[in-house]
Specification:
With 160 residues, the protein is mostly beta strands. It has one domain (26-157): Jelly Rolls (Sandwich). The chain is built from 3 helices and 9 strands. It is elongated, with a radius of gyration of 18 Å.
């Protein structure tokens, strides 16, 4: 008798749910190869930027629009490029008016540690359908214009 069999039939639906969430097909944002998603820090060093909705450019599509009718999770944030090398960035992702934190990242830009093509995996909190998704960012470097990251997100919608 296997482990799952020993749990009893009342755990069957829970096991099915765990299996469903463990194996899924992720989507990409932005979707177009010509679009980018910029995360922009404050011009002041070690100071949070304002909360800003995540949007691609030049398409103008919001990440929030992908969660408009279904809840989901962020699976990863891939850093494709940074505007400055040898600096630390900190990013927070959140949803809704109260800015419920979904995930936090600390990113070391290229020459000090990891290459910019790094993919911090996310075990993010659930994002309810219809919520606006925001970021805020700070960088140890102070510059005008503000330092930035180019990223893309991998996400998963429930019920697909």
């Amino acid at each position: 008798m296997g482990f799952i069999d020993r749990l009893g039939p009342e755990y069957g639906p829970l096991i099915d749910d765990l299996h469903f969430f463990e194996q899924h097909s992720t989507r990409l944002f932005p979707e177009e190869t010509t679009d980018i998603c910029s995360i922009i820090a404050n011009v002041l060093a070690d100071t949070w930027s304002d909360w800003t909705e995540i949007v691609d450019s030049p398409g103008g599509v919001t990440l929030s629009s992908k969660f408009a009718s279904k809840p989901g999770h962020l699976s990863a944030m891939l850093i494709e490029d940074t505007s400055v090398v040898s600096s630390v960035f900190v990013v927070e992702l959140a949803y809704g008016t109260p800015k419920v934190i979904v995930s936090r990242f600390r990113i070391q830009s290229e020459t000090n540690k990891l290459p910019t093509a790094e993919s911090p995996r996310v075990r993010a909190n659930h994002i309810p359908a219809g919520e606006t998704i925001y970021y805020r960012c700070m960088c140890e470097a102070a510059n005008t214009p503000a330092e930035s990251l180019e990223v893309h997100f991998r996400y998963f919608l429930h019920g697909e």
